[in-house]
Amino acid sequence: MSMEEILETRGLTKRYGNLVAVNEVDFTVREGEIVGLLGPNGAGKTSLVSMLAGILEPSGGQAFVAGMDIVRDSARVKQIVGFVPQDLAVYPELSGYQNLSFFASLYGLKGRERAERISDVLDIVQLSGWAGKKVRTYSGGMKRRLNLAVGLLNRPAVLLLDEPTVGVDPQSRNHIFESIKNLVRERKIAVIYTTHYMEEAEHLCDRVAIYVDGRITACDRPQDLVARSGGQTITIGFDGELTEDVLASLKGLPNVSNAVVRMNSLELFTDSAVDIVGTVVARLRTVVQPTSLRVSGASLESVFLALTGRSLRD
Amino acid sequence: MAWITIAWKDIRLQLGDWVGLIWLFVTPIIVITVASFALSGLFNPTYQVFTVPVVQLDHGKVANQIVSNLRKLSALHIETTAMNGAGKVVPLTIQQARTKVQSDKAAIVIPQGFSRDVANGKQAALIVLQDPTDKVVPSVVSNILSKIVAGIQLHDIAVRAEIQGESNAVAALSAQVGHPLRFRLNPAQIARSSQAIIAHGQLRIQAQSVISDAAHTPSAFQSNVPGYAVMFMLFGTSFAGASLLSEKESGTLLKLRSLPIRRVDIIGGKLSSNFIVALLQAAILFAVGRLVFGMWLGNSLAGLCLLIIVTAFSATGLGMLIAALSKTRSQATGLSILIILTSSALGGSWWPLYIVPHWMQTFAHITLTAWSMDGFNQLLVYGNGLSAILPSVTALVVMGLLFFSIALWRFRWD
User: Which residues are paired to A297 by β-bridges?
Assistant: First the structure.
């Protein structure tokens, strides 16, 4: 592991009985980098970050944070990892300040240091004016920001954010994004950000890992992933049933990276739609009746579809 | 009809929670069963057989006759022996009888020289050891004993009067006729002689309380305050224990587990807060009992504090165990209600254990309530000291440790 890499997994696996939630995952995260884990609900993202947070014990493989094994050096790893769970892990009947004070104490922070740290994280999430109020009076977005603040109390080197914007209004989402970007820029912390929102991954992450069925299918910069899948998507609606041999022949066309059928719609990924669209329609007409045609630029969503054969909302 | 739609939705939700349904129906059935067994004696058409320990320090003719007459009564089960430390059957001692009175409520002591005193026409007394907390058994035993004694007295009087009357009549007539004569008895003379002897009172029955501090007659508070204190400590600690599940459901437990702290710190923290709250709860209840109702707190404040502490400890352990055995907070609530109501009925929180059948008194000691109530009765009813509650203290500590161990073992962290 290079000096720059703060986190590395090697064949990390988590099984629940026969179910493999995390399947031999290998990846690295560098200091000052935001890596998005993009996958549908139930893909195993939470199991992966829970292992990295020291909550779940891996069934196999290894993971290292700053060179420390997450199982053997669990206590030391926890000191430098911040975890923001998907659920709001704060006590509604305590004030924001009391919540932070409680968690700060569990990190072993005392006296002035604790007060300074609380003040610091309240500034980061812009909740200083609400610190004295009970959390139950906060809006959903404010609770999310407090949830984030708790994860920052130990000034982590690695921040694990498990779907931190679920159910958040756009304004609070922007607050959270800005806070994360500032932290990465100013403190060079590494962030793993799980999400099933394509636009979040595209907007926020330096690299995106496409994560399906417990595996990372691809991991790269969003623009490189898009380029890899081809620059354009041809979407053709049709009536009838598309045969496997026709689909295979379409996939075999020059400049086509993948073709996926969903319901009565064909999505074909290519870097040159103009060159092949006529051929595609002609071949389709041999078995089905095309009803619509659309050509669009590739996006992370189309990349996801191209790589996994399904949409994030499936 | 919107209300039908809402009602149907709620019924479907309830039917879906099969665990909740079990508690809903099983809890009342179990509590009713326990309560009915416990109070079966009150509604039984046949009479209840009392066990009466008898300390027979005199084995003369009258003493033996009294014991023999007592044994003939089917309403009483007479115990004159006990096992000693070596497992041998030996005659019951006064000390053993005093201990037995706490469960049997009355015992009879026939003092040494009793038969001789009766034969010599001296004052003689039978002692009935009584537990003043019970108003029924001691008076039943005293009444039965009075009747037996009266029967023996009348028989004795009749025999003496007959002999005396015969003797006097024979002597007078023999003197007149100049040769020995025989006469029938004079009933009027026998009655006069008998009444004179009864009035003189050769045989007495003397009641003696087994409570060491006679100045403090137990009131209902001595039983109710600890009984309900234990029950509400159980409610408090079990609901607080379930807050661990609440943290699990809300996600804060997951967050706590991501911090550099040990699992035992999480459980220990929960446990300590529950324990402190249980102690405060008990302290307030006893303070109100003392200050508002003038309840006597016994002769050993140290013993009382110790018993409250170990009861709170054991109750906290039970609360954690319930949390560990439940998947959700609602399951824990249902299980808590089932366990607490059953152990309160079984263990003596609602009524004194001595009124329930003997098998049930023994069975009740699977609950911490029964052990705790035993201890509170020793301190607050019988005025005994620290040594008297050691069995209860030991049992409660062992139960508490067992509950904690199982809770730690069985709690589902994930």
Answer: A232
